[in-house]
Amino acid sequence: MENRSSDQRTKYTRNSRTISGRLHDELVMMDLEQGKYFSLNPVATRIWDLLEKEMTLDELCTVLTEEYDVESNQCMDEVRELLEEMEKLGLVGAFRG
What we know:
This protein is α+β, with helices and mostly antiparallel strands. It has a domain at 2-15 and 43-92. The chain has helices spanning 2-9, 42-50, 57-67, 72-88, and strands at residues 10-14, 18-23, 26-31, 36-40, 55-56, 92-96. A hairpin with a 2-residue loop joins β2 and β3 (26-31).
């Protein structure tokens, strides 16, 4: 449970080193420092859009459960996994409060 409480205080935001462009309902990005390309599916693209400002996992899932047919617990698990992966890749920053 301790991990979940730290999630509630952690805010995420996208990094500024990434340039991106839309291709249909997906996003293609390039991290300029790493020289790597990334492609996001439509839901991950929506999360990326939301991360224009700092948001917690709870805040993201509040928006996503209103917009998509997904249960809160499933949203939390899947978005947490995505954010962890994006943080490892250097696409988002995490700021613990």
